[in-house]
Amino acid sequence: MLDVIAIGEVLIDFTPADPTARGNEQFECNPGGAPANVTVSLSQLGVKTAFVSKVGEDRFGSLLHETLLSSGVDVSGLSFTKEANTTLAFVHLDDKGDRSFSFYRKPGADTLLSPQDIPLDRIESCRLFHFGSLSMTHEPARSATRTAVVKAKEAGAMLSYDPNIRFSLWETTEEAKQNILWGMKYADILKISEEELSFITGINDIEKGSLSLQQQFGITVIVVTLAEKGCYYRLPAHEGYIPGFSVKAVDTTGAGDAFMGCLLFKLLEGGIPLHQITQDQINSALTFANAGGALVTTRKGALQSMPTTDEINKLMKSKQLNQDSWRPGFHFSPPSHWLNDPNGLVYYEGEYHLFYQYHPFSTKWGPMHWGHAISPDLIHWQHEPIALFPDEHGAIFSGCCVVDWNNSSGLFNGSHGLIAIFTHADTDPESGQPRQRQSLAYSSDKGRTWHKYAGNPVLAEPGLIDFRDPKVFWHSKSKRWIMAIVAGDHVRFYGSENLREWSLTGEFGQMEGSHDGVWECPDLFELPIDDTGKTKWVLIISIGDNPACPEGSRTQYFIGDFDGQTFINDHAADHVMWLDYGRDNYAGVTWSDIPEQDGRRVMIGWMSNWKYANDTPTESWRGSMTLPRALSLTSREEGVVLIQMPVREIEQLRNESMSWSDVKLHLGHRLPAKLVMIY
């Protein structure tokens, strides 16, 4: 029994070679064709494959036949014809290794494949049938492809589909779209590029575009390839982004086909029905596929460049080693790429949620997303798929989460759930100035999936350029929601009954505290003072980097009162209190909705500084968080001050101890290795 049968084009890719001594362009002959590449990729990984197509009775046809056969592919379904030559494609590469094509296929032998050439009996017994769109550009190959697809579907095989659009091979773009959409109706697994997704759906946002395809066609597994950035996937129960591998690319031809072959290999290897695939399983499969696709780009040609399992595992292992270099053992860090401010800290139904500013395409700051992790104890974190993606309103800057226990928002059908309030950041199309507005998203499944509010943005102040980082809490005395948000050099306070409509209630800070940099990431909460029975309000403000200040970005706080409208400072306007004097605790905020019986106000910060955040010496990931800290107020000679202690949960990490005695240190003396590690 065959595992996989593929149908479609097989051709010769002429890829650029070094020019002649006279400077004339030269090309190297390489066997290729997307579905043929997929079968060779699978065969290289140990899968039993067969390929159905047609080649010309010429030297190129013989070369393709021999290459597939030597690669372990069953070629009994590959026939020869005298009516047309084997299809040729000239590949043109730019400086980055990206491709454009010139095809010689009018007609090509592969377009002459007829329904009578299809081995229907073999298709009935295969586990998976793979097809693309290019075998549907002309008759009779279009009918042959459709016949095979329908037979595979009727027989209960899984169907994988790669649209692989090449507009020059179609009569019109509309004809291309209609035939590609026909294939969507039969696909269980779809691999599609970002550009192809936009063409098919008319939607530029990959999250919304993939959702549209899933809803329209019921495709179980949708994977959007993002070149060196990796891929995005959507399953019925969850979605996410899987980062790519950084390699030196010389030719991207066949990278998507290797990716597809590696993905199919992992899905077949697991033997799990597609609708039962877990998040860990799809993450593992797509990481493997990303590695396979990356490897192909490091060598020229496609079909003969497909990687082995050992090569893929070696690349994955090297990335893992790189990821672990400099990675802290106890401080939270992202699975890959860039992290900065903690966002959306909330406790809900036994879980601590940590969202954070995340750039999934680089290790430097860029278009912001919300990364996501969940913990039962503030110490052990489970990475979750990206929660919020940029959209038509802009990137997703900092914000907060609250539990809407009484459904004041009206978004939970009488129940309760999580509301995220965050800053949308884009450019004003009229003025060309940066624009920051406040928006909502909500989750009814404990933060696993998020839906952006249709009425976004919910709060805008057109006259303010710096207007960001909302922190929202329920104020029981005034019986409404309060938002603290920064506006350049001060904090503004807004009130709301429903989290969707906000009105300004007060301002604070234009002439108070430190203004060494722009104000960011406010937090406002009430704490008891020791055991006196008295309380005070604490307002935390982070201050952005100022080149004139050697300390860089840091955090100050104010002690005072909040009357439901605005904050009243207990100290003189020029009195400054710093959260701490270290350089690596910025943008810290506290968890919402920690139960009253717990009684703690817990904070976490970004363990970096804008003086050097983009330059810390990690390669595949960058950024980490401080240890969570419990905050409290105490009275000292200078007055009431804020103190911090690591949360008690950290004690569970202290599971062994070591001691040394009579250790004498002198110049040139080498310390014991374990002692060096502890230091």
What is the spatial order of strands in the main beta sheet? 5-4-1-8-9-10-11-12-13
* Structure classification: alpha+beta
Task: Please give the number of β-strands.
Answer: 35
Q: Can you summarize the main beta sheet?
A: 9 strands, mixed
Helix content: 10-25%
Descriptors:
679 residues; alpha+beta; five-stranded mixed β-sheet
Describe the structure.
It is a single chain. The chain has 679 residues and is α+β, with helices and mostly antiparallel strands. The strands form seven sheets. A nine-stranded mixed beta sheet has the order 5-4-1-8-9-10-11-12-13, with helices on both faces. Strand 24 and strand 25 form a beta hairpin. Helix 1 crosses helix 8, helix 6 (194-201) crosses helix 7 (206-217) and helix 8 packs antiparallel against helix 9 (279-296). The N and C termini lie far apart (60 Å).
Question: In terms of topology, how is this protein built?
Answer:
Elements: E1 4-7, E2 11-17, E3 26-32, H1 34-44, E4 49-56, H2 59-70, E5 78-81, E6 88-93, E7 99-104, H3 120-123, E8 128-132, H4 141-154, E9 158-162, H5 173-184, E10 189-193, H6 194-201, H7 206-217, E11 221-225, E12 230-234, E13 239-243, H8 255-270, H9 279-296, H10 309-324, E14 337-348, E15 351-359, E16 369-375, E17 382-388, E18 395-404, E19 417-427, E20 434-443, E21 451-452, E22 468-475, E23 480-486, E24 491-496, E25 503-508, E26 519-528, E27 535-543, E28 554-562, E29 567-569, E30 577-578, E31 586-590, E32 601-606, E33 621-622, E34 629-636, E35 639-646, H11 673-678
Parallel strand pairs: 1-4, 1-8, 2-6, 4-5, 8-9, 9-10, 10-11, 14-33
Antiparallel strand pairs: 2-3, 6-7, 11-12, 12-13, 14-15, 15-16, 16-17, 18-19, 19-20, 20-21, 22-23, 23-24, 24-25, 26-27, 27-28, 28-29, 28-30, 31-32, 32-34, 34-35
